[in-house]
Write a structure and sequence with these properties.
single chain, alpha/beta, 14 strands, globular, binds P-hydroxybenzoic acid
């Protein structure tokens, strides 16, 4: 849904998007964040980041900071073919290529720590076991796996195995190991993925958490695993280099909550007390913004609630263009704005926003899997003027 209209060029300059801001321990030059984006281009076998991935991220180093694609903290935490991990030595070495390349270009990059819970399939799990979840509730929909011919294929989800309470400390340990590995790989911080229907949100939301132990029932219990993840990750990183991502009101991955205002309002308050670098919220008004409409009452109320309960740095992601981003910053609805698809197609997105330049359009057929095409070959403005691109090594996966 990226746009490319000549009228962009005539737009007045934006101001607030380019105001420097401190986030945790970092002084950032502007407010344009690169959102986490699954691209499914890790080398196989082993889900290892490559020099091609390093090139892609380095091209986008002019973001205020980058949040990496979601990265599984364990084999059990993987939910899609070809996504990268942060649990093996090879993966740490692969990510080192990425962080070095981003730092060489003057950027900053946080790793997003991911466990998918039930959004997986035995074909992706160690020893073909069932995926795990708070409760044995099957998601509607399909998992993206690699079939016997090495191709991507969609297969129906299965009913996951409910985690036993004795396993919970080891799940927390997966986040600890991921956090430590992220530091060894040279990242600038980490973001805990508690959004979009994956494991931590499966604990948070009532449709997926039917537990009767201390991880189920009242929101304090449903948020327990998230807070344990925050505690173990901040042990490694301190508070000022850790963020959390939430997606209140999103039904993505077949999830819902009986009382999202209480659930997410309470959790925003709990996270506020943790004094983290930031809270990153998937905009509940994404669809409205994309249609050029105002948020509906429910989304507007949730946005207000997040802003009220969370007093630290708030990043909003989803549906923004340059002008709506500027307007929402002006209205005080957020401190920074994250862009996803626009960053896929425009490695120099901040520069294009600064100039009011036209944007390249993204190609959804190349989002997931493959090599350089639709990944590292989107041109910058300088390249459109004839400058040669820095060559990328396409050491693709097979
Ligand atoms: C996806 O691969 O579609 C995906 C991955 C992680 C998210 C959301 C979507 O948080």
């Amino acid at each position: 849904m990226s746009t490319s209209t000549p009228a962009d060029a005539a737009k007045p300059p934006v101001k607030l998007l380019f105001e420097p801001i401190r986030v945790g321990r970092y002084d950032l030059p502007h407010r344009i964040v690169m959102a986490p984006l699954t691209r499914s281009r890790a080398r196989q076998p082993g889900n290892v980041p490559t020099a091609l991935n390093a090139c892609y991220y380095a091209q986008r180093a002019s973001a205020a900071f980058i949040v990496s694609e979601a990265t599984q903290v364990s084999m059990q935490g993987q939910g899609y073919a070809w996504t990268p991990g942060i649990h093996s030595r090879e993966q740490v070495e692969g990510w080192r290529l990425v962080t070095d390349a981003v730092h060489e270009e003057g950027g900053r990059i946080f790793l997003q720590l991911w466990h998918v819970g039930r959004i997986s399939h035995p074909a992706l799990q160690p020893d073909c076991m069932l995926p795990v979840a708070p409760s044995a509730v099957k998601p509607a929909g399909e998992a993206f796996i690699e079939n016997e011919r090495g191709e991507g294929e969609l297969v129906p989800f299965v009913t996951p195995r409910a985690l036993q309470i004795e396993e919970m400390p080891y799940l927390v340990r997966q986040y600890f190991r991921g956090a430590r590995n992220a530091m060894a790989a040279g990242f600038d911080g980490v973001e805990i993925h508690a959004a979009n229907g994956y494991l931590l949100e499966q604990f948070i939301c009532s449709s997926t958490n039917k537990r009767t132990d201390e991880y189920g029932g009242p929101v304090e219990n449903r948020a327990r695993l998230l807070l344990e993840a925050v505690a173990t990750v901040t042990e490694v990183w301190g508070k000022d280099r850790v963020g959390v991502r939430l997606s209140p009101l999103s039904a993505f991955n077949d999830i819902s909550d009986d009382d999202p205002e209480t659930t997410f309002g309470t959790i925003a308050g709990m996270l506020n007390d943790e004094d983290l670098a930031y809270l990153h919220v998937v905009n509940p008004a994404t669809a409205a913004l994309e249609k050029g409409e105002e948020p509906d009452a429910r989304a507007a109320n949730m946005l207000r609630l997040m802003r009220e309960r969370y007093r630290g740095r708030l990043i909003l992601a989803g549906g923004f263009d340059r002008d709506t981003a500027e307007a929402w910053l002006r209205q005080g609805k957020a401190d920074l704005i994250a862009f996803g698809r626009k960053f896929i197609a425009n490695p120099d997105l901040p520069e294009r926003f600064r100039l009011g330049a036209p944007l390249n359009r993204d190609d959804p057929t190349t989002y997931y899997g493959g090599g350089a095409k639709g990944y590292t070959d989107y041109p910058t403005l300088a390249q459109e003027r004839g400058e040669q691109p820095k060559p990328c090594v396409d050491d693709r996966w097979r």
